[in-house]
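Exam prep: given the inputs below (a chain plus zinc ion), describe the expected output before reading on.
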Amino acid sequence: MKYVFGVDIGGTTVKMGFLTSEGELLEKWEIPTDRSDNGANILSDVAASIDSKITEKGIDKADVIGVGAGVPGPVDSNGIIHSAANLGWGVFNASEEFSRLTGLKAMVGNDANVAALGEMWKGGGVGYKDIVMVTLGTGVGGGIIIDGKIVNGSAGAGGEIGHIHINDDEQAACGCGGHGCLEQYASATGLSRTAKELFADWKEATVLTADDLSAKAVFDGVKAGDKLCKEIAAKFGDTLGKGLAIIAAVVNPEAFVIGGGVSKAGSILLDYITPSFEKYSFHGTRNAKMVLATLGNDAGIYGAAKLLF
Ligand code: ZN
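Solution:
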């Protein structure tokens, strides 16, 4: 039996997984992310945790194929990180450093791209090799997989779909400093903002209240048949579908895999994205399926492991 480790390094915790080479997750655990000293100890902490797991399991290190890791920042195809502000990291070759520390083959990728790879391998994207993962959380994250491989881009910023410019008239600034980015409308935060705007002018009955205009409240309302919630969801779906149509014209994926907190609404979410995608997409790209992600927070562990193959 051969094994592999998948590691998802976040700003607060490092999620770690011990898997077979077939992708069966045997065990997962977490260690805290030590951000002191510009994150200088993070990779060595992870390496030490892997070493003790190998000892605990009584396996031969020669049976470990390697360790993969996803990090919250741009990473190019050579494993060079172009700064990860959440960890305090600057520019360095993380794959080389991680390999030196673990004594194992190591591969490092951007966390969103790595999660996309995980969903293709063991999640909502199983059976496809050209997918775009769309993570609808606080922001809108993305990962593009073409022919089974991550599109990293020249500076590691491939798949940053949340910052596709979609509205010329936006006055509010996006987290990136731009104005009118997709994530200003299609994230959980953006959905709440739309809810707040429409709620303020709403004259009819609604299940929504001013103190809870979250994405969950809106989609719960949609399921209950609430008219305002359906309007909010329609506006959200229209903008997101337009963004996905733009992406489809560039990479023509087999499927969009929709994940992140907003996707907990379930398949009803897809009912609001698909009509808009079909309306705005070029006919040659309209074959793309809309599916939900299935791995949740484990996508990064699976995808990091898959980097080794
Ligand atoms: Zn932006």
